[in-house]
Amino acid sequence: MRKKIWIPFLFLLFNSFFTKAQTCDWKFVQHLIQEENYRDAQILLQEVVAKNDTVTFLKGWCLLKSKQPDSALLVWQNCHSKTQLGAICSFYSSLLNLYEHEYSKGVVALKSIDTLQLNTNEKLLQQIFATGFFIAQKQFSSADSVIKKFQFNNFMVSDGQKEIIKTMQLFKTAKHRSAFLAGLFSSIIPGSGKWYAGNLGGALGGFIVCAGLGGVAYEQYKKPVYKSINVVVSASAFAFFYVGNIIGSVFVAKIHRENIEKENFNYLLRVLQIAADQQFSPNQLFQ
Predict the structure, then answer these.
(1) Is 184 buried (19+), middle (13-18) or exposed (0-12) by CB count in 10 A?
(2) Would you say 199 and 252 are in contact if contact means Cβ atoms under 8 Å apart?
(3) Angstrom distances, CA of residue 68 to CA of 45, 65, 81, 229, 244
(4) Tens of pLDDT along 202-235?
(5) CB–CB of 121/154 below 8 Å?
(6) CB 193 within 8 A of CB 252
(7) Per-residue pLDDT tens over the stretch 119-165
(8) Where are the domains of the chain?
(9) Computed from CA positions of residues 171, 176, 178, 181, in that sequence, does the dihedral angle turn out positive or negative?
(10) What phi and psi values does residue 10 have, to the nearest 5 degrees?
(11) pTM more than 0.85
């Protein structure tokens, strides 16, 4: 008789524990997210056993805002792309793949979105994202073909459309410095290659050092015993810094190019991030 009494009690206790494990205080999670306390919100969400797109999206959001993009990407990839929240996760997954320069994976994530789950604004956002991927890969003709579809009559996305066009102009008009020309200029006039690449301090320093050592070597050469050790030492020093000045100019030009490309790429990421954040907010899930 006692065993029969304990059985329903244990069942109720287990059911209560399991139900609690699948739920959490959503109002408190909302409060933490609004206060940008993403780490504590993430801890609460980790306690939720049930797996659904809402929990998956919020977990990924908190990880992203906690500056853990790799972890956020792994979480969002588990979303079902055929649902509305799954479509949102795919938008952010494509953005994170772009951040990692995984262009093919980002395009796949973007194409996996079910357009039936998107409203008008989100369809226009998909166009902005597609343009962004073309720009990142410098496929400007393909980007232009998408931009021609922009109508700028929707204030919710028109800013994003204008910014993505501005971004493409930045990529197109970026003034890169030729490493070959930088080396050539410095071989003619020491330091001029660095000046061409935008490093004025390095240009001045390179010119002074090479001119000084060249002058010393020439003075030593003019002496009667021009084959003395002083000539060898001074000429060797001049040759070393002269060649270094050419190689340094080549590297400065390459670094200048990489910095411009990195700056433009980061600008592209910010444009897409802002455009996405304007459309999607975790607070919409709590309404």
Answers:
(1) middle
(2) yes
(3) 16, 7, 22, 61, 41
(4) 888 888 887 887 787 777 777 765 556 777 777 7
(5) yes
(6) yes
(7) 888 889 999 999 999 999 999 999 999 999 998 888 888 999 999 99
(8) 179-266
(9) positive
(10) -65, -35
(11) no
